[in-house]
Write a structure and sequence with these properties.
3 helices; 91 residues; mainly alpha; single chain
């Protein structure tokens, strides 16, 4: 692998990590501001099921490549919680 390609790969990886950190931060903030439960990782059961389904969809979209379960879960959770909050603000 050339040095230029390696640098681009490292930059892409750094951007992906930064993006995931932002998602984690947003989900953490949402959890703290919600009244779902005292435990910070709790989601209502129906939302947990929606997150699980979306995380599996992400896994399938990646071609069922192993090693990304946490990333898929956090991404799915951010999508689901974000959608729920937007709907709550509109409604």
């Amino acid at each position: 692998m050339s040095k230029r390609h390696r640098n681009k790969t490292e930059q892409g990886t750094s951007a992906a990590v930064a993006s995931q950190m932002e998602i984690v931060s947003n989900v953490t903030s949402i959890r703290r501001s919600s009244n779902t439960d005292a435990h910070p990782s709790s989601l209502p059961l129906h939302m947990d099921q929606i997150v699980r389904r979306r995380a599996y969809e992400l896994y399938e979209q990646r071609g069922r490549e192993e090693g990304h379960a946490q990333e898929d879960w956090l991404h799915a959770e951010a999508e689901v919680v974000g959608t729920a909050l937007r709907r709550a603000r509109v409604g």
